[in-house]
């Protein structure tokens, strides 16, 4: 598993954005970036598919 990836196979920065995009009531996420390449990289988060179990696991980590 490449550095920064998790069991889902996504980079943590993509996982964080995907989690936000899957939260009830959140329609838009505006990631920061100084360069166009950083924004293009952030957009890749839309390709991360999270199921209900993934969402619950992330939320349990955040509660600790």
From TrEMBL:
InterPro entries, sorted: NAD(P)_OxRdtase_dom_sf (IPR036812), NADP_OxRdtase_dom (IPR023210)
Domain NADP-dependent oxidoreductase: start-end pairs: 12-62
Pfam families reported for this sequence: Aldo_ket_red (PF00248)
SUPFAM superfamilies listed in its UniProt record: NAD(P)-linked oxidoreductase
The name this protein goes by in its record: NADP-dependent oxidoreductase domain-containing protein
Originating organism: Bacillus mycoides
């Amino acid at each position: 598993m490449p550095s920064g990836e998790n069991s889902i196979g996504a980079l943590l920065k993509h996982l964080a954005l995907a989690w936000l995009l899957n939260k009830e009531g959140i329609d838009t996420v505006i990631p920061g970036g100084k360069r166009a390449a950083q924004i293009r990289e952030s957009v890749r988060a839309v390709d991360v598919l999270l199921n209900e179990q993934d969402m619950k696991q992330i939320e349990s980590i955040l509660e600790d």
